[in-house]
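#onboarding

Welcome to the new folks! Below is a worked example of what a typical request in this channel looks like: someone posts a single protein sequence, and someone else replies with the predicted structure as tokens. Don't worry about understanding the tokens yet, we'll cover that in week two.

Example request:
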Amino acid sequence: MKFATKAIHAGIEPDPSTGAIMTPIFQTSTFAQPSVGKNKGFEYARSSNPTRQTLEKSFAALENAKHAFAFSSGMAATDTVMKLLKPNDEVICGQDIYGGSYRLFVKIYEEMGIKFHFIDMQDEEKIQNTINKNSKMIWIETPSNPLLQIIDIKKTVDIAKKNNLISVVDNTFATPYLQNPITMGADIAMHSATKYLGGHSDVVMGALMLNDEKLAEKIYFIQKSCGAVPSPFDCFLVLRGIKTLHLRVDASCRNATKIATFLMNHEKVKNVYYVGLEQHKGHKIAKKQMKKFGGMISFDLKNDTKENAAIFLEKINIFALAESLGGVESLACYPAMMTHASIPIEKRHEIGITDSLIRLSIGCEDTDDLMQDLEEALQNVKV
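Example response:
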């Protein structure tokens, strides 16, 4: 079954009691049981819910996985993965990652005795040299947030397997439509389903997809025990969003390709980070492991100041100044003070998150309107 068909049909059956095409919202906290020790597959909504179960089947199908689990947010999904570890375990992680992940790792789990090595994972030798007897996991984010760095998933996963490490890929930017880490051998694919999977900026959710039975049992136990599960209504919304995932991502990719070229040729723009550009350091790898190049773009202004970034962001009109990404509407974000504010300034500058770096989530609007909006905002930027 090809992706477009899977997105619309996989895991979803008409409701047997009514024939409803859309999975009903089972808005219930508990389920009547015919007798002690017997039930109809459901006992209590934290453990399982029919609407969530259908969504999890759809999640699994999208990532070509056997198992999937839905969570109340992307961070709840990430937190669940971290709960697989114990004090003194060590994690190898990219230096350019979502600020919320960095905050969780450093402010919560490092205080619990888990050590994180933030390295340039574009360099496989650095990965090899960082592994030691306490290493238990490799956390891969590709394309990365916000600098769109590309990590070779297959090579990194092979390193993980040779060293008996769990490999996790944050696949949020790429989506299952453009990239399939499980197919490339990764143990776990993670998504902030708030973003492209939901696609309409109206829900917060996370997802984990995987094949390994023992890992799946552990993750289900954590999900059930800790209870960071989404509501039935939120599950319904994401099921609705998934049906148009391929159409929305295709539109975003088309727009992003044109906008990246426009920005690259603009006199007030210094650097453009878009993996679809041949000049991008990871372009060849991205071409190998992604179907298309996605809808995320970041860029630096030539006059690299916070004041200039603020001028630009105050002048945009169609683009909304907001956190998040992956919706049908285009968004602009200022990582230094928004998504990555939890990373110390010296660390941000070392990575390449400058004072004028702006991240764009390209939506499904008309391309010409988006480029005109950017041009009008850039006209106000100081040289």
